[in-house]
Design goal:
five-stranded mixed β-sheet; about 375 residues
Length: about 375
């Protein structure tokens, strides 16, 4: 008899397209419910790809957003496969399902995050454990049959609607490759192709660095499990734009920085500013440009602001005797609640008071770079 460790995992999902404004009443199934659903899913898959009968179906009794499934290492599927391999084959036959007991799933990666529960699509993870001899042909058949005619059976769809308290527009089976392709198209549609390029590298070729440019031209790179992004201030300094356009351009770059940070976090990846002087904290990024000079006034914090974005950057600067401003650092809050932490860190690092001088605009110097006022604010 073939050992569980020698079986090949073929990951898939049951994709649920929900009716608008109809989120699931809950995100996880009990053990008994998961087992009942697994039986229905097995019947559906046998009808689509008969060779599934020779593999072992594993089902996770929880529904996720795509961002929770598409993370480096694919932790949901990895956990599902590890749990399935521990169950003796003769104990549960060719179908094994995992649901919650007293509200807790058997492993943390199988717990959906309520923060991502409001999306229009939910995905229930599946996996087929097949022998090495069967896996290649079965994978090929799944790729063809699921995307072509993988609609879930009426009994399965009805069971899901009754049990999860939802209305379904569609319910269909997809391979993990199908889910990757679907998400790629969605990101490209909203001008995030470069973000997907890095995400794909992190998931499929994590050992290989990858570079890209954002839609606004900020340099991006993936390496060693993190994504590194050019700072908006550095990007602005290299732009060939008129003075009237530069402030608006910087606001757009910060908006893009925040968008990338939020999506990368959802996919389980950290975003850092590129450069040796860059550092990060909870919900913010910062870069150091110079050390305080005792010949200048005490460092002061200035807030650059833009309509619709609030504080887009915080500059630490010193004023000299002639009123010239010496910039020490820039910080970028990724969301409004992180501003306090950023201010505290910058004030401590540069010996400044935590008072923030609001500029009401994005302050640029004569060369069009992010700067601080040359005169004192009262």
């Amino acid at each position: 008899m073939e050992s569980a460790s020698s079986l090949v995992a073929l990951p898939a999902v049951l994709a649920l397209e929900l009716s608008p404004g109809d989120p699931p009443a809950r995100l996880t199934l009990t053990r008994d419910e998961a087992a009942e659903l697994a039986t229905l899913v097995a019947d559906d898959l046998h009808g689509l790809v008969p060779d599934v009968a020779q593999a072992r179906l594993t089902l996770g009794g929880a529904v996720f957003d795509a961002v929770e499934l598409l993370r480096p290492g694919f932790p949901v599927w990895t956990t599902l496969d590890e749990l399935a391999r521990r169950v003796p084959r003769g104990q549960l036959g060719n179908v094994v399902a995992f649901g919650h007991h007293e509200g807790r799933m058997p492993a943390q990666p199988l717990e959906p995050d309520p923060a991502y529960a409001d999306g229009p699509m939910r995905f229930l993870p599946l996996s087929l454990l097949a022998s090495e001899e069967l896996a290649g042909a079965l994978s090929e058949r799944m790729e063809v049959e699921l995307v072509g005619r993988g609609e879930a059976g009426a009994r399965t769809a009805d069971w899901l609607m009754r049990t999860l308290g939802i209305r379904l527009e569609h319910a269909r089976y997809l391979s993990r490759n199908d889910l990757l392709a679907l998400t790629c198209v969605q990101y490209e549609h909203v001008n995030l192709a470069s973000l997907w390029q890095l995400l794909e590298a992190a998931m499929l070729t994590p050992y290989r660095p990858e570079t890209a440019l954002s839609a606004r031209g900020l340099a991006l790179r993936y390496a060693e499990g993190k994504v590194w992004m050019q700072s908006p201030a550095q990007w602005l300094a290299a732009q060939d734009r008129g003075m009237a356009e530069r402030g608006h351009a910087l606001a757009g770059a910060v908006f893009e920085l925040r968008q990338y940070a939020a999506l990368l976090h959802a996919h389980g990846l950290a975003l850092e500013l590129d450069g040796e002087s860059a550092h990060a904290g909870p919900g913010w990024l910062a870069e150091t440009l110079a050390r305080p000079d005792p010949a200048y006034d005490a460092p002061t914090l200035f807030a650059h602001e833009a309509a619709g974005l609030g504080v887009v950057a915080v500059t630490v600067a010193q004023r000299g005797s002639a009123g010239n401003a010496r910039v020490l650092a820039h910080g970028y809050p990724l969301y409004s609640a992180a501003l306090g932490s950023l201010l505290t860190t910058l004030a401590d690092r540069f010996g400044a008071t935590s008072d923030l001088h609001a500029l009401g605009k994005i302050q640029l110097d004569a060369q069009g770079a992010l700067a601080a006022p040359a005169v004192a604010l009262h």
